[in-house]
Design a protein that fits this description.
By secondary structure, the chain is mainly alpha-helical. The chain contains four helices and two strands. A hairpin with a 3-residue loop joins strand 1 and strand 2. The N and C termini lie far apart (63 Å).
């Protein structure tokens, strides 16, 4: 009985420790594009309506774009950042991996 109890205690300890170890991942494990998005989001704040014409994460509203002066959600801002960043990556695609840095 004592051995069985020790086995369950060890199993419980192992199960409790495993998710915490897996939850802490390094940013270096992500693809370059995802790393760049996280870095941009860290240093470019989510802009408020008072920052107009800059919205979301540094998008400047251009003539002909149909954006309103309001607070955008995190999901909307993330989608716009990814779209803008992909557009700039396409612009510098001839530079290979350096397009991430140039964009």
């Amino acid at each position: 009985m004592k051995k069985l109890l020790m086995f369950f205690m060890a199993l419980l300890t192992l199960a409790a420790a495993t998710p915490a170890a897996n939850a802490k991942r390094s940013i270096m494990e992500l693809p370059l594009f995802e790393r760049a998005v996280l870095i941009i989001k860290k240093f470019e704040t989510l802009h408020k309506p008072k920052h107009w014409p800059t919205i979301c994460y540094g998008h400047v509203v251009q003539r002909g774009e149909h954006f309103t002066r309001r607070q955008y959600s995190e999901r909307e801002a993330d989608a716009l950042l990814r779209r803008d960043y992909a557009k700039f990556c396409e612009l510098y695609k001839e530079y290979g991996r350096d397009k991430i840095l140039l964009s």
